[in-house]
Amino acid sequence: MALCIDFHLLPEKLVPAIERLFELSAEKILSLEKNWKEACGAPVFTVNGHYTTRGWTDWTAGFRHGSALLQYDATGDRRFFDLGLNGTLQAMPTHISHIGVHDHGFNIVSTYGNLRRLILEGRAAGAEPLLHTCELALKISGAVQAARWTQRPDGGYIHSFNGPHSLFIDTLRSLRSLALAHHLGHVLFGEQDQRISLLGRLIDHGLTTAQYNVYYGEGRDIYDVPGRVAHEAIFNTVNGQFRCPNSQQGYSPFSTWTRGLAWAILGFAEQLEFLHACCGQDHVVTGENVTIADVLNRFLRAAIVTADYYISVCCADGIPMWDTGAPNLHKLGDYANRPADPFNEWEPVDSSAAAIAAQGLLRLGNHLRRLGRHSHARRYRQSALTMARTLFAEPYLATSHRHQGLILHSVYHRPNGWDRVARGQRVPNGESSMWGDYHARELALMVLRESRRESYLTFFCRPS
To answer: Between the CA atoms of 410, 363, 160 and 162, what dihedral angle is there, to the nearest 10 degrees?
Structure first.
C-alpha cells in the first residue's frame, strides 16, 4: 500500500481550498509580472522564494502566460485575461516556429490554446478577432513539432533537444500540439510536397513511447517492473534500433524519475480523451493498418500500468519522492506508507510530479467512466482528488506573501544540482517551479469546473 485513497472525497469539498489557492495565485502572478526582467528570458524555478531563470531552453515561457489565463478562467478577473493575452502576443510568437525543442505542447498550447478555448467558450469579450491568429499559431506549432522527427522501420518519434537518437517521456504532453493542428485540419508538407499526417505522427510517437519508455513486467530486462518509466529511450539513428533506456533528470536508467512517470500518466490520458472524442475508431492511421481502436487499447494499457505504479510508489498522501531509486531512500524507512516529509534529511520529494500525475489520474478516471468501467474509474478519480487535497494545503501551498511560487517542494534537476538547498537543510525543499504551479492551477480549474457543473476542460475544446 502507498497512496491512502479517500473514496468519499467529493470535488465540492475541495472548493474552499481551491478558492484560497486562486486568491494566493493572484498575488503571485502579479508579483512575478511586476518584478520579472524580460531580458532574463523565461522564469523557471524559485530561489529563496523568487523566480529565477536557467539557461537551458525557454520551455517554461508558456506556463507563465498560460497561468494568467487559467487564473482568469477560474476567477473571472479580467486583469489576468489581459495579462495572459498581452504576454502571449508579445512573448510567444518566436516560440511558434522554434525548431530546436520538443516543448510546443507546453509553450504554445498553454498560451494560444487556452486563448482559443476561452474565445470558443464565449468568455473572451473583445478578443474574438484573434481566433484566427490563435488557430494559425497552433497549426504552425503542431507542424513544427511534428517535423522534429526520427524515422524508424516501424514508426518514429519526435526527438528531444538532445538529438535525433533521443526520445523523452516528457514529449507525450507535447503531442497536444500535433493533436490541435490536426483537429484544425492542418497537414505537414515534406520534400516534394509529401503530405505528412499530423495524426499519424502523433500515433507513431505515442506507440513508440508506449513500447520503449514504459515497462509492463514482461522480462524486457531484470528491472522490468510493471509501470516503471524510463525518462529517455536511446536509438541507433542509422538503423532505428532501440539501444537502451537512459535518464537525464532521474537517478538512473533503471529507476523511475517520478516527474517522467507523471508525464506518462497525463500524456496518455489526455490523448485517450482526444482520440476517443475526435477520431472514428475504425480510422486507419499508420501504414501498418493500425486503427484508432487499436491505438486506444495500447494507450489505455500504458496509462493504466503507469497510473497503478504511481499509486503504489508515492507516499500515503500522494506526493512522490523525486525518483523511485534515489540512493538514500533506504534511510527513510517505511516512507511510502506515511505522508511525505519534504523536510527529511535524505532525499527530496517532488510536488510538481504530484500536480501533473493528479490531473492524469483524474482524466484517466473520467475516460474509464465514459467506457462504463466504473470501479476502475472511481479508483483513479478518488486518487486524484486525494492528491489535490494534499497539494492545495500546507505544507505544499505557499501561503507566504513574500514567496512568488504557488506550490512548494518542487524539484527541477537533482543530478545537476540546480535546486537550492536552504541553510540548515540537506536536500532541496521550499521552492517552486513554473510547471508545478501551472499544473496545480490546471488541476484546480478542472476540479472547480466539475464542482460548478461547467463544461469539461480539454485542450481541444470538445466537451464530453
So the answer is: 30
